[in-house]
Amino acid sequence: MSGIDVTNGVVGAFIGMLFAVLFQQPLQNLWYRLRRRSASALRSLGRREESGPVWSTFSLGPLQTSALIVEGDGDKPIAPESVHVHVLDGEVELPSDMAGWRAEIAEESERLRAEGRTPLWNGPRYAVDSVDITRTALDESPEVHLRLRPTDYYTFLAAQQLDRRLPDGTTPRSRYLDPERPLQAPDFLQCSFAVNIAVVTADDMLVVSQRSDRVRMAPGVWNSSVNEGLSRHIDSSGRSAPDLHAVARRGMREELAVEPHEYTLELLAFVLDIDKRHWSGHFHARLKELKSPDLQARMSRGVADRWEHETIEYVPFRPAAVVRYLLREDRVHRWAPLAPALFHLSLVHAFSRPLVERVEAQVLRRL
């Protein structure tokens, strides 16, 4: 072999080694990326376009509710001056083929009275004609216009029979409600507006109530700390419109025997139970000095609406503790529809949305 051949061999080997050092790893990386992109492209060929409803009801893992949060996320309270309540003229009228249901309820009440039992009290109420929400021009704060019409409890009970058959075979739900437009409904199907309050004591305990078996609607379920419906007789003076914060304060007094100077009160959201068409103003109340034993002792000395509650429980007001309580096996399917969203919003208000959602995800992973 000549010297030239040896030189060429050495130079070739050196060039080969240099090429491997400089280009082998980048080429391998390029090949790896191309394979990943090709595999991803092949997988995407089997996918279809997906969509979901903008209006989804509140859920938390296995806890599924019919509560639709219409306005408010818990982070920033809704100012009292931003809520405008209007009472319209003209009482709610049931359609002719539902009017007989109201007559049946009136007859039932008279029968109970004749038997010496407690009749159904036909209290004056409000029905929701509409809820309109806009934003202010400068800071985009919510402006809520709540329009109400006069109605009564018998009409409410009649309208709650949403799945009862009408003479033509339809039901009020199928005839008058469109699941694709949950905010649209006739006023006679929306004869309920209430305030629901999450109450936190001075020692950081969340008050949770169980509805009494004596109440006609949703007996025995677990609910908010305070639930109070709007009353035309109590909450409206003359022709004036009710004030939602005043209704909440009345509920605090009647159900927990707590006076306005003993707590702070903030409106967090407007929420609709799309199944029963119940509207709610969701509030958060923080007791200034009363701790859970103090509140228990206060209630032991007398509460105006004691009969509405079967049990009162106190839960540590911390995200993990409240979420685990909501998802307890003996609770998860026994909640009033509007309560879990209320407690979630209260946690967000106190601890921030990112923290609460992170804790919720951690709890759900451990189920």
Number of strand elements: 13
Main beta sheet strand tally, sense and closure: 5 strands, mixed
Spell out the helices and strands N to C: HEEEEHEEHHEEEEHHEEHEHHH
The strand order across the widest sheet is 3-11-12-7-10
Mean pLDDT: 87
- Enumerate the spans where pLDDT stays under 50 for 5 or more consecutive residues: none
Note the topology.
Elements: H1 3-45, E1 59-60, E2 63-64, E3 67-71, E4 83-87, H2 96-114, E5 124-135, E6 142-152, H3 153-159, H4 172-176, E7 193-200, E8 205-211, E9 222-223, E10 226-229, H5 232-235, H6 244-256, E11 263-273, E12 278-287, H7 292-300, E13 309-316, H8 319-326, H9 339-351, H10 353-365
Parallel strand pairs: 4-6, 7-12
Antiparallel strand pairs: 1-2, 3-11, 5-6, 7-10, 8-9, 8-13, 11-12
Tell me about this structure.
The longest helix has 43 residues. The strands form four sheets. The chain has a five-stranded mixed β-sheet with strand order 3-11-12-7-10. It has 367 residues and is of the alpha+beta class. Strand 11 and strand 12 form a beta hairpin. The mean pLDDT is 87. It contains ten helices and 13 strands. Helix 8 packs across helix 10.
Task: Write out key terms for the chains shown.
367 residues; alpha+beta; five-stranded mixed sheet; 37% helix; globular
What's this model, at a glance?
Helices cover 37% and strands 24% of the residues. It has 367 residues and is α+β, with helices and mostly antiparallel strands.
